[in-house]
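User: We ran a pulldown and think these components assemble together. Before we commit to crystallization trials, I'd like a predicted model of the whole complex to look at. Sequences follow.
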Amino acid sequence: MTTPPPWAAEGGQQTHAIAKNDDVVRARQLARTLAQESKLSLVDQTKFITAASELARNTMVYGGGGELRAGLVRRNGRLGVAAVFDDTGPGIADVDLAMTDGWTSGLGLGLGLSGARRLVDEFLLDTEPGRGTTVTIIKWAR
Amino acid sequence: MAKQESVSGLVGLLEADGEALADEWVALVAGALGGRISRAELVRELRELYSALLEAIRSGADDAHAEGMSEVRALLTELSRSRARQGFTPSETAVSVLALKRVLEPGLREGAAEKTQAYLQLSRVLDDLALFTIETYTHTREDIISAQADQLMELSTPVVKLWDGVIAVPLVGTLDSARTQVVMEKLLQALVDTGSEQAIIDITGVAAVDTQVAQHLLKTIVAARLMGAECTVSGIRPQIAQTIVALGIEFGDIVTKATLADALQLALMKSGVELVAQQGLQR
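Assistant: Here's a predicted model for the assembly, 425 residues in total across the polymer chains.
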């Protein structure tokens, strides 16, 4: 089990279901609001929003729907924004393969998972075939 | 025989003090709606409803879904549709029907048993009619929402002609599969209709370009190329550029520009148009 991020006291942590296309848009809007609250630079905001968009879509398309928990986090006095994408789908059998640029089990470009990792500061992937997948991302304000 | 009695009981209940009853009904509904609908209109609506209801009950309809109630249902459909369009809440819509129950209540105080019986029967009918009203209201709202979604889809994807042979599609908001389909169709059709060879896709208004958006863009561009048009993607802001690089999306040989102005200049150059500033006007 990955340790959940230490949620910051300020800015309530929010939970959203991800089941349909609209939910991806809503996840992206939540990511945008939180990224702005945590005072990320414009570039970092865009990176975090894009990563959240990728992972939300993965949760919906490959995980068969799941849940997003997101909120502000604080570690050693540094403020950041975190999002946890949780699904109980088929899980990922070969993590190394899934993280390879250009490889996809579906119809996408194969850059979502690997690209999302490059867009954020911390990326935790917890998966097991048959149990589901949990991806945690954090972006710290500079 | 029993049915005949119950019908006459219901008619009696409604007719007893007809005028006063209808006035009180109007007053109660007007209070609930807070003057957002004109008194005259309300009087007309409720009078019509009242006489239709009376007529229906006289004809022996004692069920909201009965054949004889079709006139009442038609009036209620019209009423809830107009309420939904004017932005009233479901409660404010249903109150038009339910207020009649409250108006009839005082008459029960001195009431005989058969009067109470008739009231209860009418009450059931009115409850069903109120539910019918809310149902119609909800349907209307759903229709409005889906019509708005369609409008939004249309609105957000205009194809504009910038010059002879140069068209542009300014994209705004979220680019999902359905939107991309519309954009692609419109762009390709516009290429044919205007005989253009240069197309500019401007993504200034797209908040985030993720792999799906990029994939949709690439597909649109490839389709346009198959038709012999050259596509330029413009409006790539610094933060979007950095994100695309980090994601690892390859735009290959597709020409991209920072602003629509740059893209237009390029498109004009490619179509052989030369822009020259007039000497005398130079600052």
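The interface with chain A takes residues 174, 176-177, 207-212, 214-215, 238-240, 242-243, 246-249 of chain B (CB under 8 Å). That may be worth checking against your pulldown data before setting up trials.

User: Thanks, that helps.
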